[in-house]
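re: that complex we talked abt at group meeting.

here r the seqs, copy pasted straight from the sheet so there may be weird spacing, ignore it
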Amino acid sequence: MITLQNIHKYYEVGANKLHVLKGLDMTIEEGELVSIMGSSGSGKSTLLNILGILDDYDTGTYTLNHTPMKNLSQTKAAYYRNQFLGFVFQSFNLLSFKNAMENVALPLYYQKVPRKERNKIALEYLDRVGLKEWAEHSPNEMSGGQKQRVAIARALISKPKVILADEPTGALDTKTSEEVMEIFKEVNHEGITVIIVTHENEVANQTQRVIRLKDGNIINY
Amino acid sequence: MFDLDKWQEIFGTIRQNKLRTFLTAFGVFWGIFMLILLLGAGRGMQNGVGQEFAGEAMNSIWIWEGKTNMPYQGLKAGREIHFANQDLALITNDLGDKMNMLAPRNRVWGEYTINYKTKNGSYQVLGSVGEFFKLNGEKFIKGRMLNQNDADEKRKVMVIGEKVRKTLFGDGEGIGEYVKVKGVFFKVVGIFTTNQNNGRNEERAYIPFSTLQMVFNQPNKVQVMVLNGIDGIPAIEIENSVRKVLANNHKFDTEDRQAIGINNNEENYKRFMGLFNGIAMFVWVVGIGTLIAGVVGVSNIMLIIVKERTKEIGVRKALGATPWSIVSLILQESIFITAFSGYLGLLASIGLLDSLRYLIEVTGAELPYFTRPEVDTYVAISATLILVLAGALAGLIPALKAANIKPIEALRAD
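got the structure back, here u go
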């Protein structure tokens, strides 16, 4: 599903070049549940950005679903993100002026699905995460766990190949963290590849494989 | 294409920031409001001046007697010039085909009133011919103007202004009644109106020129002459010919500007129009300046909006929003705010101008050089176009900025 070959990434900091990713090689198969761990500064966020086509890399090759991801136009990148990827963020990133259903339906808006239809689909996905009766509520009326479940429903609605989650439990307490992880596992059972970036061992232990990063290198693969 | 979803997005953000949107919109509202108001007021002044010229032949030339200021052919300066019937003939001869109309006009001298039964009014009585009214623009609402027969037979008839009629006859029609001036009876045959001189020219009465010369003892005397050329002949050309003829006849220097007085309406009108074009241009410059200030305000606010929504835009992009969908969202919001508030400003200013005009008309207020402030469709349409354009321009920079937001921004936790 995902193949990285010798990925290098530099950031320019003033006159200096910061070498963030120092030649990563890795493969993630379809249907895997993988976690990426590493201390801050290890390059895990950068890696996630590259995996999510949110940032470009300098050298190497990245293939997602048999399609090379290099030098994409913004429009093309937006298309692949919409087709292949679902994002879950630590801070949920729901739009506060839209209710839960509209938030979930947003990716379908960018697929030009008619309003009625996408709201119907959004309700189905909300039902899946157990929040159907919260459809008309706005995000700020919800708890953190509920918000993250809405965010997961939003990530799933476009039927992505890969779910990318950046510290999805970072802002949640233990109990809700478990609930969220259960949802991820369910999703994974349905065959969707799930990649979770985390620094919590309890989260990492629930995944099938842990990729550890240190100083821009993969140390445990 | 009407995209309901996009509009809902826009109204969503507007609802989020009511005060900010209002303040921004007010900038544009004020800009267009002032622009239209200024333009309307400018037009009001133009109309006011236009009214002064109303009806009067635009190319008419007025000539009156003066006193020489320069010695000429051995004659000393300070000589009074007096016109006579001969001058009329000389001018007519000289101009030939080029002349359209020529009318003399004299005033009855001395102390007198116009009397009707027990009523009387102290109004000027002048003597002239029918052409005079065509040149000067009096409109006859009852009866007739003076004609050739009146002149030929030296009839004792009189046409009076509407205000004179009101004073003498009240509700009566006046036509066919006899009025007395200096012991001589005149039959009223016509009533005219005019708004010249703010309507004070209605406080006049005219009798045939030949009658005046005979009855009031001004034999072969001409005080004032009014004439115009046929269409297409510049008034200045007529003016120069007439000056030459009179200078030749009365022996004064053509350079002597005080020997006779000449008022050339066409030249005056041109000068006024030049002035008003200048004013109109000035108003546009000021108005557009105000508008630009409003538009810069919108642009500024949209920049802040983009800044505030960085995260949201990043999320949208992560979820598959194309750069164009972001640009069009911001642009549409900007155009909507400017167009809507600008349109309100347009309506408000036109409403104010219309009610002002209504008040002026209803109260009959006579403001010097100011009537009927108005805005024509052309101005309204161009203002609307400018607005939409301005809205697009105001949104463009912020929109491009928004399109360049890296989706990574959205991933960063607060």
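couple things i noticed - Residues 32-45+73-220 of chain A form a domain with the Rossmann fold fold (CATH 3.40.50.300). The beta strands of chain A are 2-13, 16-28, 33-38, 59-64, 67-68, 85-88, 162-166, 193-198, 209-214, 217-220.
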